[in-house]
Amino acid sequence: xxxxxxxGSGCAGLTAAIYAARAxxxxxxxxxxxxxxxxxxxxxxxxxxxxxxxxDGPQLIMNMHAQAEKFGSRxxxxxxxxxxxxxxxxxxxxxxxxxxxxxxxxxxxxxxxKWLGLQNExxxxxxxxxxxATCDGAFYRNVPVAVVGGxxxxxxxxxxxxxxxSKVYLIHRRDKLRASKIMAERVQRCDKIExxxxxxxxxxxxxxxxxxxxVDLRDVSTQxxxxxxxxCVFVAIGHEPNAKPYAxxxxxxxxxxxxxxxxxxxxxxxxxxxxxxxxxVYKQAITAAGAGCAAAMEAEKYLSGLE
Length: 307
Ligand code: NAP
What we know:
Elements: E1 2-7, H1 11-22, E2 28-30, E3 44-45, E4 55-56, H2 57-70, E5 74-76, E6 80-85, E7 90-94, E8 99-107, E9 111-113, H3 121-124, E10 129-130, H4 133-136, E11 144-148, H5 152-161, E12 167-171, H6 181-189, E13 193-196, E14 199-206, E15 212-219, E16 225-229, E17 232-235, E18 239-241, E19 271-273, H7 285-306
Parallel strand pairs: 1-2, 1-8, 2-5, 8-19, 10-17, 11-12, 11-17, 12-13
Antiparallel strand pairs: 3-4, 6-7, 7-8, 9-18, 14-15, 15-16
The structure holds NADP nicotinamide-adenine-dinucleotide phosphate.
NADP nicotinamide-adenine-dinucleotide phosphate binds next to helix 5.
């Protein structure tokens, strides 16, 4: 029987691991399908406190990993696929096969950005294709960029990007924003944002170095295509929390995010939730790290209560 299993190895999971390991709980961290979480796919992180010159996302995550390991965390390249809360412990299925038993569980499996599903998409991520304006917007000064989506995220990203870009095209597949009225009005009032209605990206067009140079737009009513030069595309069509194994067992909101009581508690004693799998508002590395810390401290308190 494990004392603490941590599902996920992004900011929330690794911070939980540092705290749990320093409390001598020797946590087992399941690294998941994307070890390191969303930070592992970003470039320079300029807003994580303590790094005035910024730090590479993968480096930041490697540092956290080393810190967690140094204090006795154990790591496994596996994924949680099933979850069964029992009276006094939790059963957790790994990679669709083996079941592990643990006295406490920290779910920090994060959220994955939704992408458009275009042919060369995976290759372009990090080369002028991103899902995070806060992370990457400042790299695109005085050049035209595009945001895809029509919700609050797209509106927020577009407004944020006007601080840097020469022009922000907001590409939306309909002729009306889904965003809240106040956000939609802000977008409409902003001269730097040019909405492109009823349009989708048909393909990304890289330059010779493989960096984004343009997109081919398709008008969904006429099917006509045209090329739009942009240095970066910010896809903001929503996030998908990685919470499938807990469906029907833990409380979820309408979009599949796990719901917490207080900051990190679930309805089961000993089961805690931290980071983007439960956060549809802030979605920042530092807020995920904070929740990871809280979850580990709650797990420690829960385990001491059992003794
Ligand atoms: P969202 O509200 O679900 O909007 C997603 C947008 O992307 C929609 O406009 C949708 O188009 C479009 N879209 C989805 N799939 C697409 C595809 N394959 N191709 C092209 N377009 C696609 O997601 P969100 O903007 O991330 O917001 C999620 C939640 O967080 C919302 O409740 C939102 O209010 C909240 N949020 C709030 C704030 C804030 O208050 N400041 C900021 C961010 C997010 P359709 O409109 O045609 O469906």
